[in-house]
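hey so u asked for the seq, here:
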Amino acid sequence: MSIYDYSNLELDQAHEIFEKRIKESELEKEYKLIGLSALAKIKKKTALCHFDIHFLNIMYDHSEDSIIDWVNAKLGNPVLDIARTYIILKQYAQRMANKYLKLISRKGTMN
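ran it, structure tokens below
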């Protein structure tokens, strides 16, 4: 959660990158419109987002955790990062996905 406290860094804006990816994708036009419409409904923010959080990217050292592999990092609304993490967990650790969503929802970043 503390990564979202960092903002206004010199990173790409997730909204702009995702919008470009949707427009340039090979999706059918109707799906592109759905994706662009959904993205437009999410408020633009400038929080640091990792966009690849999973168990292999979290290092544990006794009492301290560190997140590694920041190659996908962008500025954006934490809800985008939370959704991406949920999808990753749903694919590879289904039981943990719902636990993650419940815990993160309690923290209040879903707004």
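The longest strand covers residues 58-61. DSSP finds four helices and four strands in the chain.
lmk if thats what u needed
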